User: Which sequence fits this backbone?
């Protein structure tokens, strides 16, 4: 944890989380937007993010990663802070409406570009370091939550400082040139984005955005009042899941996120849009964001798909669905019957994806990916490499059996059924395998096994 707090990337990510919320929720005050909770600003933010994602998906055809020199971070920081200065001048001079909109769009684009650059740095780290950075950044963002309550003018001054700090922190230890991330190496795996998992992620974001808009309308005063608490609770849940499964726990984290947001919708349907409902919703989405950072870094470091394309596709889904959910909330404002119908549909769909889409086997198979050779030949080679790992690290015969199934993406429940043992016993064996092989996650274990092909 101390190493995570000391990392410049942790501070950069923590500052960026605060900067995102400051820009999306508070900059609209300088634009004179008639909205009690900056809903139009949130909607506009998401739409700009969609446009940038499409541009980067096209750009990823020729460039798998963004340039790793200091030009882009500095440019993003200068443009973002400059646009903030223009919006800050709105209180002193009567700027044209077009200038205000352009300044807001420039600030949002800078925030989004910094997000892609941070993800690019995360993918270069081992997954154990990624976890440290994510947890440390969450603690930093929690400590900065009191900044949300300062007056809007001073908050924009803080925004200028955060833009510059993020850009400068990204310049630490960045080599010149471009990071090679698009080549296919023996350790890389083909990852196909399954429609069911993407649909589940999209539904989480739509449900959150819709619920957020309704609760903002009802309880304006609690928008920032419980942010720190919900982030802390989400971080505790995230840490407990990692400790419980001795791995990244993507399936369990997604199911927990769905449960929390669905519970908030239940309170909303009962007409009880209270502090507790907002806390459930915010906790669920904070957990989703922590999982998103780790999943993107994991996929980008282990997949044959260009990292920039992975980031852009997922960000396109998130921003597009956020815009859809916010638009639904604005469209049905004040119409209780239609709002209840939309909430009911979202609730049913959330339960459906939690049960049928976010299964451990499907999610684990997705992150395990496919090796590029034919199934039969690669299966034989895979078994030989696993046997070599078992011999080198002195695994027992039972541990080798579990290693074979676990490396193919099987869940603890599936392995327990195959070997007629309990899931707890499987998790205990997996923990011992990690300790003997000196790894911290499934992906590191897969990289260790694949590395035998190079020796």
Assistant:
């Amino acid at each position: 944890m101390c190493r995570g707090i000391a990392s410049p990337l942790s501070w950069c990510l923590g500052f960026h989380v605060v900067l995102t919320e400051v820009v999306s929720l508070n900059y609209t005050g300088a634009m004179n937007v008639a909205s009690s909770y900056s809903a139009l600003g949130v909607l506009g933010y998401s739409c700009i993010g969609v446009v940038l994602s499409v541009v980067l998906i096209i750009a990823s055809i020729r460039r798998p990663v963004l340039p790793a020199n200091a030009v882009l971070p500095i440019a993003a920081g200068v443009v973002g802070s400059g646009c903030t200065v223009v919006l800050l001048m709105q209180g002193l001079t009567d700027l044209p409406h077009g200038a205000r909109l352009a300044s807001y769009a420039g600030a949002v684009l800078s925030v989004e570009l910094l997000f892609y650059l941070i993800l690019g740095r995360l993918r270069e780290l081992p997954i154990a370091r990624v976890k440290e950075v994510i947890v440390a950044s969450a603690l930093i963002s929690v400590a900065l939550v009191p900044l949300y309550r300062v007056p809007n003018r001073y908050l924009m001054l803080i925004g200028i400082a955060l833009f510059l700090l993020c850009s400068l922190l990204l310049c630490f230890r960045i080599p010149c040139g471009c990071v090679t991330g698009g080549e296919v190496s023996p350790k890389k795996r083909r990852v196909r984005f399954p429609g069911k998992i993407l649909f589940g992620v999209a539904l989480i974001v739509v449900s959150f955005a819709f619920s957020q808009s309704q609760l903002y309308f009802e309880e304006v005063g609690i928008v920032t009042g419980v942010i720190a608490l919900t982030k802390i609770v989400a971080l505790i849940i995230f840490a407990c899941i990692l400790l419980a499964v001795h791995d990244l726990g993507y399936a369990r984290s997604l199911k927990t996120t769905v449960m929390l947001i669905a519970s908030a919708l239940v309170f909303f349907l009962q007409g009880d849009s209270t502090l507790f409902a907002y806390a459930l919703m915010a906790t669920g989405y904070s957990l989703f964001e922590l999982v998103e950072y780790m999943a993107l870094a994991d996929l980008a470091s282990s997949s044959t798909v260009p990292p920039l394309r992975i980031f852009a596709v997922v960000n396109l889904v998130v921003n597009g669905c956020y815009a859809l959910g916010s638009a639904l909330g604005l469209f049905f404002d004040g119409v209780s019957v239609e709002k209840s119908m939309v909430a009911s549909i979202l609730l049913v769909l959330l339960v459906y994806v939690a049960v049928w889409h976010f299964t451990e086997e499907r999610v684990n198979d997705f992150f395990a990916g496919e090796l590029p050779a034919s199934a039969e030949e690669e299966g034989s080679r895979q078994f030989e490499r696993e046997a070599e790992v078992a011999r080198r690290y002195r695994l027992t015969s039972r541990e080798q059996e579990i290693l074979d199934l676990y490396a193919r993406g099987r869940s603890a429940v599936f392995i327990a059924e195959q070997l007629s043992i309990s899931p707890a016993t499987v998790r205990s064996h997996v923990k011992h395998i990690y300790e003997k092989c000196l790894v911290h996650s499934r992906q590191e274990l897969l990289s260790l096994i694949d590395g035998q092909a190079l020796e």
Notes: The radius of gyration is 23 Å.
